[in-house]
Amino acid sequence: GDSVTQTEGLVTLTKGLPVMLNCTYQTTYSPFLFWYVQHLNEAPKLLLKSSTDNKRTEHQGFYATLHKSSSSFHLQKSSVQLSDSALYFCALNYGGSGNKLIFGTGTLLSVKP
Amino acid sequence: EAAVTQSPRNKVAVTGGKVTLSCNQTNNHNNMYWYRQDTGHGLRLIHYSYGAGSTEKGDIPDGYKASRPSQENFSLILELATPSQTSVYFCASGDVGTGPYEQYFGPGTRLTVL
């Protein structure tokens, strides 16, 4: 069935280093992918959403590219900050699902000084 | 920005008791959703609605009911609460017009069932 996989449960990095959080998906329909960010004790908020195949989208220093050939939408940032410490969810909307989203299990990013 | 509110923010209930979680949105979105969040599971869809008077089962509906009496309000009802329903519950709203398919989340309700 349709699914989203985030392989890392926890990523710990030192401030200033680059990061990539993995997201792969499975669907036979046309996909829309999203990254949501959730800071401690807050609601999930949209970070960025996919565009067309192989086109990069960016927001707040984060970027991701939808690659349909590899069913991936990895989240990247060139230099993480302490304030980036949060839980990151990848989510899939696919044609035929109405407006429902399927969420991955989330990756906790912890940035150390 | 989209505004979704939830009440109560924290709730302690007893096993077998009835619990009602409320959600209100002022964005005139047609669609509303209830999720629960548990470590290791991410966000899982319980019920959703396409508009007033409609409710649909999500991926984990067992033990939950939903009610959408108006465009603005969407409730989640636990008729007989169990400890396994201890979780953080999020309400969200969204519409194709805000899309593609973006959802806006409320602040969450932390429910503890003893």
General description of the model:
The complex is a heterodimer of chains A (113) and B (114). With 113 residues, chain A is mostly beta strands. Chain A contains no helices and 12 strands. In chain A, a hairpin with a 7-residue loop joins strand 10 (86-94) and strand 11 (102-103). With 114 residues, chain B is an all-beta fold. Chain B has a single domain (4-113), classed as Sandwich (Immunoglobulin-like), CATH 2.60.40. Chain B has no helices and 11 strands. In chain B, the strands form 2 sheets. In chain B, strands 2, 4, 5, 6, 9, 10 and 11 form a 7-stranded mixed sheet that branches. Classes of the chains: A mainly beta (113), B mainly beta (114).
Secondary-structure element series of chain B = EEEEEEEEEEE
What level of helicity do the residues of chain B show? Answer: under 10%
Q: How many distinct domains of chain A?
A: 1
CATH superfamily label of chain B? Immunoglobulins
Shape of chain B: globular
CATH class of chain B, please?
Mainly Beta
Work out the radius of gyration of chain B: 13 Å
Give the name of the CATH architecture of chain B: Sandwich
> How large is the radius of gyration of chain A?
14 Å
For this structure, the CATH topology of chain B is Immunoglobulin-like
**Tally of helical runs of chain B:** 0
Q: State the end-to-end distance of chain B.
A: 37 Å
**C-alpha geometry of chain A:** globular
* Mean pLDDT rating of chain A: 93
CATH class of chain A: Mainly Beta
